[in-house]
Structures are given as structure tokens and as C-alpha cells.
Amino acid sequence: MAEAEKPHGAEGAKDAHGAAADGHAAAPPAKSKKLLIIGGVVVALLAGGGFYMKKAADKKHAEEESEKSVENRLMKQLEHKKDNKPPVFIALDDFLVNLPGKGGEHYLQTKLVLRTADSATEKRINEFLPLVRDRILAVLSARTVTELATVEGKEAMAKDVALVINAIIEPQLTAIFILQQDPSTADLRNLERLRAIPTETAGGASYSAVAKEAAAQFWKVTEMDLPVQGVLFNSLVMQ
Questions:
Q1: Smallest Cα–Cα separation from 97: which of 36, 32, 157, 167?
Q2: CA angle 176, 166, 235 (to 5 degrees)
Q3: Per-residue pLDDT tens digits for 81-94
Q4: 195 and 225 housed in the same domain
Q5: Is 196 contained in some domain?
Q6: Would 212 be classed as within a structural domain?
Q7: CA separation for the pair 121, 132 (Å, rounded)
Q8: Is 3 exposed, middle or buried (0-12, 13-18, 19+ CB in 10 A)?
Q9: Is residue 20 situated within a structural domain?
Q10: In angstroms, what CA-CA distances link 108 with 76, 134, 139, 163?
């Protein structure tokens, strides 16, 4: 028996529907395309924002490192110097030490006053005060009565006191200052003994050799560029 003939109209409608369905599946709706574009833009913006945030963070880190550099601190000190501001004086507690020498026991009692460029130096000294006092005592007790009987002897002692303090709170700049004075071998050994300048670097190399190279390349450093610019004797008694 011959298969019943399907209505041509119904078959045509089915084909048309099927073709329409296939066409709809192949091409995504306009709304989906917009979502994909928006998502891509958001990802690009986030990536760009992350790049600029990282760049800004790197720049801030570099600026902070620059603030800590010896050169930057020196520039600030030079600016203070240009302002011609009055110095800040810091009084230390009394020191009493035994002095080496013949003819019996001798001692020195003195009260020191430090001349500084600003009050920030006092904060640094207080942070290292036990070490500062220890180094000062080493300087004072190394003098003899004969040496301290002269003006030159007192001035030399005052300079050594300033150097040992500066070496604690500003070691690199102090080392450059010392080596720019072209000290004799004996003077250099004395300053190494007082620990105003280290004998070697952390890596074991000669500190003097490394610092001499830096001192040759650095602009001239004076006592007025150091944190402690000078040491005054508010009182000085020897016996």
C-alpha cells in the first residue's frame, strides 16, 4: 500500500522551522555579544589599573629608598645650612674618668654640650645613648694630663668625641668625612681603635679602601654637614 502522502504545507512549515532553529543556534543574540564586549573591556581596565598601581608602588618605593640615601640626607643637611638656622645644643650628663699618667692617679670630670643642626639629632643620640656614652668614655680616658693641659689637646679630644658620636648615628657620611681629611696612618689607626671608622666591611674587604674610593667621588664634606657639628666643654676639671 502506498505511503500516505504528507501534506506539503505541513512539511514546508517544519523545514522552515528547522532552518530557523538552526540559524538561531549558529548566531548568538546581540545581548550576548554586548556582554562579551563589556567583559573584555572590564578585564582590560582591571589589567591596566593593576599595571599603573604597580608602577605607582614601584615609584613610591624608589622615592623612599632615595630618601634614605646618604646623598639625599646630605642635601637636606646642606639645605638646613643654607637656611642659616641657629644651632641646637644638646647637654649630656657629666663624665668622670681616670687618666693615664705618672705621678699618681689622675682624673677628668667634664660636662659636654653638643652643637647640632636640628633637634632630630638629639632623638638619634637618645636612641643610641648607652653606646654613645661608652664611646665618649673611651675617648676621654685615652688622654693624658699633659695633653689636656694645652688648648690643642682639648680641641683634639673634642673632635674625636664628635667623630665617635657621628660614626654611630651617621656612619657612612662620617667615614667619608674622615677619609677626605687624608689622615695619616697613625691617625687612621687611632680612629679605627676608637671605632670612629670600621676596619672592614661586612663582606670582609678593607673598609678604608672602599670608603676612600667613595670619598674621592663624593663632594666635599665639612664638619658642618655632620649631625654633631662640634663639642663644647661646659665644665672641665682635671686633677
A1: 157
A2: 135
A3: 555 678 899 999 99
A4: yes
A5: yes
A6: yes
A7: 13
A8: exposed
A9: no
A10: 37, 15, 12, 20
Q: Identify the domain containing residue 62 by its residue range.
A: 52-83
Give the cell for residue 208. 678604608
Q: Which residue has the higher pLDDT, 215 or 86?
A: 86
Distance CA 165, CA 159 (A): 10
* pLDDT-wise least confident of 117-126, 152-161, 195-204: 195-204
Mean pLDDT of the chain: 77
Is residue 32 assigned to a domain?
no
Q: Which three cell numbers stand for residue 108?
A: 677628668
End-to-end Cα separation, the chain, in angstroms: 145
Domain shared by 115 and 213, yes or no = yes
Distance CA 50, CA 47 (A): 5
Residue 104 neighbours by CB under 8 Å, 6+ apart: none
Whole-prediction pTM value? 0.62
Spatial contact of 232 and 200, defined as CB atoms under 8 Å apart: no
Say if residue 58 is in the same domain as residue 150: no
pLDDT tens digits for range 125-175? 999 999 999 999 999 999 888 889 999 999 999 999 999 999 999 888 888
